[in-house]
What does this fold into?
Amino acid sequence: MVAAWLLLFVFSMTGLSACGASKFDQELAARGMIDEHAPVKTTVQIVIQAPPEKIWALLTNIKDWAAWQPDISEVRIQAAPAPAVPFTWSTGGMTIHSTIRLFDSDRAVGWTGRAVHLHAIHIWTLNPLPDGRVLVETRESMDGWLIGRLYSSRELQESDKKWLEHLKKAAES
It folds into this structure.
């Protein structure tokens, strides 16, 4: 939370403006990949005892993320989730402008996002296990001016771990 405020402060004081996702980021996300060369990146997994359809519904009902993910304060999306659909959401005091790049029903969803001069790729995959549980994996990369000095892969990992824990709680209830 503090890191997000620090990022926002630094970017607002330096006058840097937002930039859209690069063609490279868009292509990676559409293929379900993150930027492995980004200074901040992580992969986190969790096993959830719930039908994949329920988990998928929670992940892709973007307008209702704040109902199960308390770190998200606001979400705006104008259309049903699908490739090229933009959405805006707020977390940790930052507003993130995202666009869905991957939408493979019940299997994978991914988007690119930008906030000030920071850009990210976030991919979620659902892998049903033979015992009826689902392995959910999230991979994320972040790049941009000074991101590696202001925010670490470990902090991103902790943030994504919390997302997965909230998703598990919502899906298993």
